[in-house]
UniProtKB/TrEMBL annotation:
Superkingdom of origin: Bacteria
This protein's name: LysR substrate-binding domain-containing protein
Family to which this protein belongs: Belongs to the LysR transcriptional regulatory family.
Annotated ranges, domain HTH lysR-type: 1-58
The keyword Transport is assigned to this record: no
Matches recorded under PROSITE patterns: HTH_LYSR (PS50931)
Signal peptide bounds: none
Keyword annotations: Activator, DNA-binding, Transcription, Transcription regulation
Species this chain originates from: Pigmentiphaga soli
């Protein structure tokens, strides 16, 4: 199997036809078609369904695509690593952020990267923590913010901060105590993310030992929509203070501390120990840690900075 076959295969997938891919690659269409058929013969399976409308991936093709993209990404990392050894950090870096983190940290990280690493093109990916972990291990991400500092095979984790979940409700004049117990939340109608969301899983895990059933009146996957639902009084919610800091400052939402240890989340910055980091990825890793540290110290991110401790990874 030749490296160019991986490149040709991905190009055909992206273009949707041999004709368009040949123009993009500057390779004659018959030669390109022969390379794709040779790849299929070597793999012993058909990668494309061919028709007059173009070429569509088969199930085997979709499986091979995921691996081909990783091979090409690793080759690009290797090329950049050699180039960067005598140059400034440059190239693409993919950083994964949980949605609650993206709400508070996206713009500060982007601004710092543009100012301090002008030759680095940062790709920010916002998703559930479970997806971020999977994509980091598969090589689709270079760095990811994750919750939980327990050691995991294949991951190196650097401790960042402790983030506290808060009871968040509309600013309607109702008197609220400075702190609420977890049991007291059962009296409030709540709007929360679905049960697959990491935030919801933590809330449910904290409630389980108490046999507590919260009154969830709606499940909304978009945290922006969760906040808007709380603002108009559809239901209150539970979110980190940093993700609603603007609304609290503007007076449209109020946040009250939940007096329960299960409402504390530990955040780490994770990398894949099985994939060498480019100079650009290493520079971004240093930068995002500094940005988060400065935000917590200044109060822009209402969380507790935990310093520079690193959780040792499990190695095979």
């Amino acid at each position: 199997m030749e490296f160019r076959q991986f490149r040709y295969f991905v190009a055909v997938v992206e273009a949707g036809s041999l004709l368009k891919a040949s123009a993009r690659l500057h390779v004659a269409q018959p030669a390109l078609g022969q390379q794709i058929m040779a790849l299929e013969r070597e793999l012993g399976t058909q990668l494309f369904d061919r028709s007059s409308r173009g070429m569509a991936l088969t199930e085997s093709g979709r499986l091979f695509l995921a691996h081909a993209q990783i091979v090409l990404a690793d080759a690009e990392r290797a090329r950049l690593a050699v180039r960067e050894s005598v140059d400034l950090p440059r190239g693409d870096v993919a950083l994964g952020l949980p949605t609650t983190v993206a709400l508070v940290a996206t713009l500060p990280i982007l601004q710092a990267c543009r100012e301090r690493l002008p030759h680095v093109r940062l790709k920010l990916v916002e998703a559930y923590s479970g997806f971020l972990r999977e994509w980091l291990l598969s090589g689709r991400l270079d760095i990811a913010f994750l919750y939980g500092d327990m050691s995991e095979p294949g991951l190196a984790k650097q401790l960042l901060l402790d983030d506290r979940l808060m009871f968040v409700t509309r600013a309607d004049g109702t008197r609220l105590p400075r702190r609420l117990s977890l049991q007291a939340l059962a009296r409030w109608p709540l709007v929360l993310p679905g049960v697959e969301h990491g935030l919801r899983r933590q809330i449910d895990a904290a409630c389980a030992p108490l046999g507590l059933q919260l009154n969830v009146v709606a499940e909304i996957e978009s945290l922006g929509s969760v906040k808007r639902a709380a603002e108009v009084g559809i239901g209150s919610t539970i979110l980190p203070l940093g993700s609603v800091a603007e609304e609290v400052a503007a007076g449209s939402l109020r946040a009250v501390r939940i007096d329960d240890p299960g409402m504390l989340r530990r955040m780490v910055c994770a990398t894949n120990i099985g994939r060498p980091q480019t100079l650009a990825a290493t520079a971004v890793l240093t930068l995002v840690r500094e940005v988060v540290r400065d935000m917590t110290i200044s109060g822009a991110w209402p969380a507790r900075w935990r310093g520079t401790a690193e959780t040792a990874p499990d190695r095979p």
